[in-house]
Amino acid sequence: MDDLQYGTRNKRGDWTPNRPVEPAPLFDFPPRIKAILKWLPHYFLPWNVIFAVSAVAYWAWIIPPVESMQSIRLGWIGWLYAVNALCVLLFYGAFELHLYVLRRQENRFKYNGKFPAEQRSKAFWFESQNIDNILRTFLSGVTIWTGVEVVMLWAYANGHAPWLSFAERPWTLALVALAVPVIHEFHFFCIHRLIHTPLLYKWVHSVHHNSVNPSPWSSLSMHPVEHLLYFATVFYHLILPSNPVVMLYQLHYAGFGAIPGHVGFDKVEVGENGLVDSHAYAHYLHHKYFEVNYGDALIPLDKWFGTWHDGSPEGEARMQQRYRKRKEKLAARKARMEARGATK
């Protein structure tokens, strides 16, 4: 597969797609019907369908009977943790094995030409990005994932969350299920801006940003506070007209859905000629530049708030201009403070 048909590679080996990132047309005004219809399959395939199917499979084969979930007991909680951990190991591990261990597509479509295993850093436990990311994923990530899941299932089992039947309210549940990615995007953008405030960034979010060159295990490598904020996206279903299966879809969209944005490759090769878009470039630019693309462009929140970077030279120029303005403001504030100090 020739990745240079789709992008360019610089002298460092970093690959950049030819086309800048485009926000989804879903919230354009006036509405662009043709653009929405053309984009709509990407809303479902392949990732959202995978997460929805996994939610249905969980409900069918993994989730304990409702009677068991009416009380908090170690047995079913431990069972859920074990299954979640195994699924993360298999799903995340498959990407890690294919792209980073066996390197089956070498550095084709890889944004950063280097591999984390080749770079040691004291920012990570044992100076290894992979070991650090894996430990944080299972010690904190899967634990809090399971904890949030247990709280929601207990709430449904005890009538503390609205539980609609698919047979009685199919259209309502279909609409809520369709909104799951939108809910995630809104929630993610809000908590992401919050943890980029100086204090929370220093003590919480910097853990995730240590992975400047993200790989699959970076997806859930976070501080426990960030894990709690991140998975809190399911708590919307305590008030929405919803259902445990739709709630699980929301949870899996967060848990398994963190992978596409962190694989570090624009496209994953499947077979000899197959390509699956990761849609990771917008979030990769966030890891690279820190203060752009707080969302994933489903809702154009970054455009509305002036933090959008589409990967183009124009996007780079806008980002640099914003940095210059902020630097000038900080310099002016410092000068004012020094002037006040001199007059005292």
From TrEMBL:
The chain crosses the membrane at residues 43-64, 76-102, 138-157, 169-191. One of its GO terms (biological process) is lipid biosynthetic process. It is found in: Membrane. Keywords: Membrane, Transmembrane, Transmembrane helix. The keyword Membrane applies. GO terms for molecular function: iron ion binding; oxidoreductase activity. It comes from the Bacteria. Residues 179-307 form the Fatty acid hydroxylase domain. The keyword Transmembrane helix applies. One of its GO terms (cellular component) is membrane. This is Desaturase. It comes from Paracoccus kondratievae.
